[in-house]
Design brief:
With about 60 residues, this protein is an all-alpha fold. About 65% of the residues lie in helices and about 0% in strands.
Length: about 60
């Protein structure tokens, strides 16, 4: 079974890990881990911020592809 890459995990790693991502986005570490597990950032403003910080496409974080 082919599994698509977890772009949320990639973005968090590019920012420097869950703690740095949570501080940058103003959310808890638990929220970051929820995003990673769900492969989706539900809040559009947080998704825009994380996408900008990590240089990834926001559509990949929002699951709109």
């Amino acid at each position: 079974m082919f599994k698509t890459p977890n772009t949320v995990r990639l973005a968090v790693e590019r920012v420097g890990g869950p703690t740095k991502a949570s501080n940058a986005c103003g959310v808890s570490n638990a929220t970051i881990f929820n995003w990673i597990n769900r492969r989706h950032v539900p809040n559009i403003d947080k998704a825009k911020l994380l996408a900008t910080l990590a240089s990834v496409d926001i559509n990949d974080l929002r699951g709109t592809r």
